[in-house]
Write a structure and sequence with these properties.
The chain is an alpha+beta fold. 39% of the residues lie in helices and 12% in strands. It has four domains: 57 residues; 84 residues, Phosphorylase Kinase, domain 1; 254 residues, Transferase(Phosphotransferase), domain 1, CATH 1.10.510; 30 residues.
């Protein structure tokens, strides 16, 4: 534990507090310094709103720099992903709060193409503006520190709304109204020539007014543009929500791939879980490529089969058999915004799910349990630490082990241009037993490939 004088010296060097404010705070401390005087002083400065808990912890640990960037004062971390750390910050003059995404210089040096990817994200994020998309306000660098200044969106993610302490699946009518606005934002991105490639519950923020904001264009791609940063055989996206063709070749993902992810996110919102819950990377890829999820109307009470058909169409394995545009899907969802219509179809079952709750304007720092900037307890448009099972981090690309994963991504006899199978059967139809045999053979082949690779590595 630092001595009081050392702590006060760190505060003075940081520039966070004026000398007069610091002197007044010190005058309120006991005349005889105690063993934990530095901590007591830090708590006093927090109570007076002169420091945030994050700043106090950093100062107690000996930090004196890193509290200002681009004319903003860093208040606390909001999260961390593969493309950098995100901090809540306030403008030095007006006090306006923003989210600043920072690419650490060490990562830019150690990770190939990290700076190029970050610059690409900065460029793409400035191409489109829409009320339902998180805005990028400015970009810049100070020395070798590159950063993006983004709109700060108070509230909670859709994942937190559904999976929170008082969470649960949402009603069909509320979900339809909410996703119409999500589609408005996504359509704006598509009209600007962008494919998001990472639509998922934790990338959709819900404001205190109940408005959606689509976050994180970090994995976006410009349509018709072949990016050298997207390498073949590398999985990009979040496995629980990625389309079959995206898992086969991320560079080929188009707007219909985003709509598949919307379908998975709708399924999660109404069922309280993703379509293919659990399993490792190989298992998830296999299910997204080959399996149909359990019918939504069976796992989500109060969801009519005719509404579940919308989700089933969104999650068709062949892109041509899905909705082709956000506008097409929007028109079908609009028919389900009338509570009386839904109640007439499914009766009192509509009351089982929750009405759409409004999140708090802003959680306190202690509520977020942010212990340090490396902790990653909460995210701003990135994968949450406590979502690891349901939403694997999209940031680290999952590279197949010498083609073993590729054997499942692109199955034997399947060409690069034809990676899908027919539409899933309608409710009540039976599958042939030969499909289970095919699954078994595919798994055996994959295990055999892994065994061969392991033997070669050993010898």
């Amino acid at each position: 534990m630092p001595k009081l004088d050392d702590f006060l010296s760190n505060v003075a060097k940081s520039g966070l507090i004026t000398a007069s404010d610091l002197d007044r705070a010190r005058a309120e401390l006991p005349a005889e310094p105690e063993a934990d005087a530095a901590v007591r002083c830090a708590r006093l400065l927090i109570q007076k709103d002169l420091l945030t808990s994050y700043q106090a912890r950093k100062l107690l640990a000996g930090a004196t720099r890193g509290f200002f960037l681009g004319g903003y004062r860093i208040l606390r971390p909001l999260g961390e992903g593969g493309m950098g750390k995100v901090f809540l910050a306030a403008h030095e003059q007006g006090g306006k709060k923003v989210a600043i995404k920072v690419l650490p210089p060490k990562r830019a040096v150690e990770q190939s193409n990290a700076l190029e990817r970050f610059r690409r994200e900065m460029d793409l994020s400035q191409r489109v503006q829409h009320p339902n998309l998180a805005r990028t306000l400015d970009v810049g660098n100070e020395g070798d520190v590159h950063f993006m200044i983004m709109e700060y969106i108070p509230g909670e993610s859709l994942y937190q709304i559904v999976k929170g302490k008082n969470g649960g699946p949402l009603r069909v009518t509320d979900t339809a109204r909410f996703f119409i606005k999500v589609l408005d934002g996504l359509d704006a991105a598509h009209q600007a020539g962008l494919v998001h490639r990472d639509i998922k519950p934790s990338n959709i923020m819900v404001t205190p007014e109940g408005e959606p904001k689509v976050l994180d264009l970090g994995l976006a791609r410009a349509m018709g543009e072949e990016s050298p940063l997207t390498r073949p055989n590398v999985v990009i996206g979040t496995l629980d929500y990625a389309s079959p063709e995206q898992l086969g070749n991320a560079a080929k993902a188009d707007r219909r791939s985003d709509l598949y992810s919307v379908g998975c996110t709708l399924y999660f919102t109404l069922a309280g879980r993703p379509p293919f819950e659990g399993g490792d990377v190989v298992n998830k890829i296999f299910k997204q490529r080959m399996d149909d999820p359990e019918p939504l109307e069976r796992v989500a009470r109060g969801v009519p089969a005719s509404f579940a058909a919308i989700v089933r169409k969104l999650m068709a394995k062949k892109p041509d058999e899905r909705y082709q545009t956000c506008g097409e899907l929007r028109a079908d969802l609009a028919r389900w915004t009338d509570p009386e219509r839904v109640h007439a179809i499914v009766g009192d079952e509509t009351d089982h799910a929750r009405a759409f709750p409004l999140p708090l304007a802003e959680l306190e720092e202690d509520d977020l349990r942010l212990l340090s900037d490396e902790d990653g307890s909460s995210q701003y448009g990135l994968s949450l630490r406590d979502l690891q099972n349901a939403e694997p981090s999209a940031a680290p690309a999952h590279k197949p082990a010498r083609g073993a994963l590729r054997a499942l991504v692109l199955l034997p006899g399947e060409s690069e241009r034809s990676q899908a199978r027919p539409m899933p059967p309608r409710r009540g139809e039976r599958r042939g037993d030969d499909r289970w045999l095919f699954h078994f053979v595919a798994i055996v082949i994959a295990l055999g490939i892994l065994a061969i690779i392991a033997i070669k590595l050993i010898w």
